């Protein structure tokens, strides 16, 4: 076995934004670790940030490599200049993106240092980061909690994806998974991880429901009209 060979791993890109007139993003590049992702979700939410959900890098990246984050806006300030991909179970470093007067869609790109080809590029749309100042609307999963508890069937794949996205930890996954009925699993999910994770966790849960319980979500949406 060779010693010191770089290891390629699957990674997540996590983006959190402020609710202020100017825009500050905290952008994390971390190894796929549901526990770490859940901890970051809770920490950022408690500090007044909100997650912007974006697809993660499709290709695995090398541990120990350095990466640069760029934005296609002239007035965007990004610190630090580069970050090293490493595993830190607590307090991982992040890119801070500051834009004083954002008023348009823009692109974020991640590239390995000294390489031109990005390994990850995503559009950050204006309606995703702007604060409207309006009263917050009740979240879909809160509004339809009773129906979701009664009617969701595919709890297994839903739990798999919640673990993958960092909304629940392995302990939550194991505890909820052995509950005998789907209704009790859903009650436990609502009273535990979804309540603790707040808006960011519910956003992820809703996105998973749209995929795994598409007919149910469509029916509940029709009832709102």
TrEMBL record:
Its main location: cytoplasm. This is Apoptosis-associated speck-like protein containing a CARD. Residues 133-224 form the CARD domain. Keywords: Cytoplasm, Immunity, Inflammatory response, Innate immunity. GO terms for cellular component: cytosol. InterPro entries: CARD (IPR001315), CARD8/ASC/NALP1_CARD (IPR033516), DEATH-like_dom_sf (IPR011029), FIIND_dom (IPR025307), NLRP_Inflammasome (IPR051249). Pfam families: CARD, UPA-FIIND. One of its GO terms (biological process) is inflammatory response. The keyword Cytoplasm applies. It is found in: Cytoplasm, Cytosol. Residues 1-138 form the FIIND domain. The lineage of its organism: Eukaryota, Metazoa, Chordata, Craniata, Vertebrata.
């Amino acid at each position: 076995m060779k010693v010191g060979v770089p290891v390629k791993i699957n990674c997540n890109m996590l983006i959190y934004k402020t609710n202020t007139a100017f825009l500050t993003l905290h952008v994390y590049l971390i190894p796929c670790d549901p526990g770490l992702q859940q901890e970051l979700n809770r920490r950022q939410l408690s500090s007044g940030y909100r997650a912007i959900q974006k697809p993660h890098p499709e290709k695995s990246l090398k541990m120990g490599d350095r990466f640069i984050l760029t934005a296609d806006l002239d007035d965007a300030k990004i610190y630090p200049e580069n970050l090293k991909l490493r595993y830190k179970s607590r307090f991982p470093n992040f890119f801070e993106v500051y834009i004083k007067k954002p008023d348009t869609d823009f692109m974020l790109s991640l590239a390995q240092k000294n390489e031109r080809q990005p390994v990850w590029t995503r559009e950050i749309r204006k309606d995703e980061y702007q604060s409207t100042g309006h009263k917050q609307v009740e979240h879909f999963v809160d509004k339809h909690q009773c129906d979701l508890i009664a009617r969701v069937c595919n709890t297994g794949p839903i739990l798999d994806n919640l673990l993958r996205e960092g909304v629940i930890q392995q302990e939550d996954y194991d505890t909820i998974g052995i509950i005998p009925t789907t209704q009790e699993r859903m009650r436990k999910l609502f009273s535990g991880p979804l309540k603790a994770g707040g808006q960011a966790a519910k956003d992820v849960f809703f996105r998973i429901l749209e995929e795994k319980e598409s007919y149910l979500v469509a029916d509940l949406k029709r009832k709102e009209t």
